[in-house]
Amino acid sequence: MHTSSYWAKTSNSQPNREHLTRDVTTDVAIIGAGFTGLATSYYLQKSGYRTLVLDEHCVGWGGSGRNGSLMLVGYKHSLVAIAKKYGIDAAKEMLHMSLDGINLVKEIVEEHQIECDLTRRGSFCAAFKPSHLEGLKKEQEFMLKHLDYENYIVEAKDSRQEIDSPLYHGGLIDPNSHYFHPLNYAIGLADAVESSGGVIYEQSPAVSISRKQEHVIITTPGGQVKAKELVVATNGYTTPLVKKLYKSVIPVGSFMIATKPLDQGLADSLIPNRRGLFDTKKWLYYFRLSQDNRLLFGGRVDFRAQENDELFNTLRGNMLEVFPQLQNSEVDLKWGGKLALTMDLFPHIGHTEEGIHFALGYSGHGVSLSTLMGKLIALNIHQKGRNLTVLENLPLKEVPLHNQRVIVLSIVGSYFRFLDWVS
Ligand SMILES: Cc1cc2nc3c(=O)[nH]c(=O)nc-3n(C[C@H](O)[C@H](O)[C@H](O)COP(=O)(O)OP(=O)(O)OC[C@H]3O[C@@H](n4cnc5c(N)ncnc54)[C@H](O)[C@@H]3O)c2cc1C
Question: Are the C-beta atoms of residues 303 and 252 closer than 8 Å to each other?
């Protein structure tokens, strides 16, 4: 278990699981014990399949156990932009898929009594520029008129109802967004998987994949798994194990800090309605108050994904831009993890030419979509040839100049950061 995150420090206990030490057979092997892999296993077990999950580290070690915890409605793109590109019906379908993702998490949490502080406080998307508020107003009007979905504008003059910050100019409230303790959800989901007979091996990296007649063989240092189907659910930690997937995602480091618990009065004044917040910058900040009144603050995207003091000092500086009131508040915890972008910034699900199932590339919106994707992968295995949604039909494109992506993306990233401040 990584130990530095707020989530790891406050998590429920979980068993130390065995690593694979012999050859085994299963119906479906799954690589990755984050939300995607665990949800796939969960839904397959419900349909009567035998599943086996392998993780190089442990349950929730990846983005699933380290994230900002914001279970947001929607995608990286606005619904206006989605409708412009794919049509209003597609936008409606995608919006409903995103809501389905949240509902599935709720269902699982309720059914299995997972203690993960799942809370519906809504989200507040804060406008970084006055012009961004105009964009949010268009989004709100479009969603009401064409998608029959209600969210609410907060004018710049009323910003302090939501956030006591000099940085923002109003924003948009989505009442259906939630947040939770992500690592505890992963731990609870793993528990539900195991209760239904699913098997999870930790410290068991998949090092190669081969085919033997009808079966796929996954080799780990301690033994092989022979399976009828294989699912790869490695998102930001995707390696060249499956070349097509490796070449199609851009792993990005995102980083977080947590202050020491703040006085109740100060916490209440910073974010009066305790919503989950993020802003309209391309390289956005995301933050919320924890149960014990810490500010959990994230941002600071880095394509090399390397943690260092300079990066965390900058992140603290970013936090103070938002809340100068925290000048004397000590940062207690610092951590980072990897998410995955795709070329079109949509999540992708499907199977490769070799028949390997996958879902990845949530582009920072995977906290609840990953549970939905797990369910859809399970359906793809259980009901071959079913009708696919618009989102599932989007082609997964390889990243041009993949080998040089860190250099190219660092340049593009700096340009976007520049645009955030000048546009
Ligand atoms: C700092 C941070 C903040 C974020 N904030 C938010 C947020 O607020 N809202 C939101 O919606 N999304 C957020 N995200 C993104 C979100 O966390 C991810 O989209 C989601 O967790 C993806 O889950 P996953 O199961 O697909 O992948 P992961 O949880 O990353 O799991 C992948 C797993 O694959 C394993 N693995 C990789 N290779 C192998 C191998 N060869 N063999 C065995 N195992 C392997 C890894 O060990 C890892 O456990 C954030 C991400 C980060 C890093």
Answer: yes
